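Late entry, evening session. Most of the bench is empty. Finally got around to the prediction I had been postponing all week. Sequence below, unchanged from the version circulated by S.P.
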Amino acid sequence: MKLLFDQNLSPRLADFFTGKFVGSKHLQELNLEAASDSLVWEFAKKEGFTIVTKDNDFNDLVTFLGFPPKVIWIRKGNCSTNDIIMLLNSKLEMIEAFISDTSNGILTFY
């Protein structure tokens, strides 16, 4: 289980969560920070990542294309990286269950 953090999130998140989700990366680490959503989607699918984003475009891709990859959509307004760390940390079991679940492609947090 590994997470791929979108460009709209801090690269610190990948560092923080790689201990819990080994192999997690930020797009910047992969030189994909300027890549289109469709390229990120295909990369995540091929490499077995779950995308973590604040961007609704990935929700649309799950709706139209199905999954994998799965998407964790953070719909929390303006917030700090620490707020997102606390949010995701408080939902670790839910995230693990979601990634293993074969019937759901998007997990939304507010």
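Two things to note before I forget:
Helices lie at 12-17, 37-47, 57-65, 81-90, 92-100.
Strands lie at 2-5, 25-26, 49-53, 71-74, 106-109.
Will write this up properly tomorrow.
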